[in-house]
Amino acid sequence: MNEEPWKKYIKLGLNHHLLFPVTFESAAEHRRTIREVLAYPEFEVIDMFIPDSDEAAEEEIPLVHASGKEPVYNCPLMNGPRLNPNSPDRAIRMETVEAVIKHLRRGLDIGARKAVIASGPNPGEALIAEQTAYFVEYVAALCARVPEIELLIEPFDRSIGKNLLIGSTREAAEVVRQVRAQGYGNIGLLIDMGHIPLMNETFAQAVKDSQSYIRHVHLGSCVMSNPANPLYGDMHPPWGYEDGEHDVVELVEFLKALFASGYLGGEDRPSVTFEMRPYPGKSERESVDIFLAKLREAWKTL
């Protein structure tokens, strides 16, 4: 079999829990399906988390090590009761730090050297500046506590998706700049192709605003035009999905922006991960084959 054309430039990854969304709710399904994803030969990277289950951790950690794949740990959003990374209540912020530290320790256990984090709920325009300062304090605390892992802030939206505090790529980059100014080098950004329209940004703008700090990329889409669509908002539809924003044409545009920024095309092979749900009526493996086919089609035009 001929080597895929992108392998010279990237380490391709797959997000386990978005390909199998049931894993958010079921540790048993998480344990069952992780084996399938780790066995896919096309991927060098896996984006994943470990459920809050000693049984899951005991079973999955050796599986990840044995796979030889590079794990990127995806911490869950911290916006539940008593969890908020940008809360004005310092006690809540510190409780959130401790909750995330548990995930970061699991990340280290599976061999991850990168972990994705995010801000908390959008408090409203009047409080964004104040709570961004609290979020900077929170991120710096995480960097200090777990220096062995590089934290990657993922900017989201303030609209029809997750509606979080950090609602633009530029704001996320500014948080990274402030944390680094405090002496912490283990902080960067994740750029998600599917979040960019939700933040009212273009690919070129998002990559330009973050290019000094990009450490990982997610490939995907979103639905903005039809509120009745079951995947409306930030629900990770596959490329070409009905009412979706992205397909091969947009993928080409995004990849060109990544090459122009220097994230792609340098001496290193950076990580780029598919983060999409399966196609309606298709199995997970069939959907992955379509993702790969669309990536091949896009790559031919670069």
Tags for this model:
302 residues; alpha/beta; 8 strands
Q: Could you walk me through the main structural features you see in this protein, from its secondary elements to its overall organization?
A:
- An eight-stranded parallel barrel has the order 1-2-3-4-5-6-7-8, surrounded by four helices.
- The radius of gyration is 18 Å and the shape is globular.
- 40% of the residues lie in helices and 13% in strands.
- α4 links the parallel β3 and β4.
- The two termini are 22 Å apart.
- The chain is built from nine helices and eight strands.
- The protein is α/β, with parallel strands linked by helices.
- The model has no long low-confidence stretch (mean pLDDT 96).
- α2 runs parallel beside α3 (54-67) and α5 (128-145) packs across α6 (169-181).
- Could you say which structural class the secondary elements and strand pairing correspond to? alpha/beta
Morphology call? globular
Counted beta strands: 8
Measured on Cα atoms, how large is the radius of gyration?
18 Å
Q: Compute the average pLDDT.
A: 96
Give me the side-by-side strand order of the main sheet. Answer: 1-2-3-4-5-6-7-8
State the order of secondary-structure elements, H for helix, E for strand.
Answer: EHHEHEHEHEHEHEHEH
Fraction of helical residues: 25-40%
**Strand residue content:** 5-15%
Distance N to C terminus: 22 Å
- The DSSP helix count reads 9
**Low confidence ranges:** none
Largest sheet: 8 strands, parallel, barrel
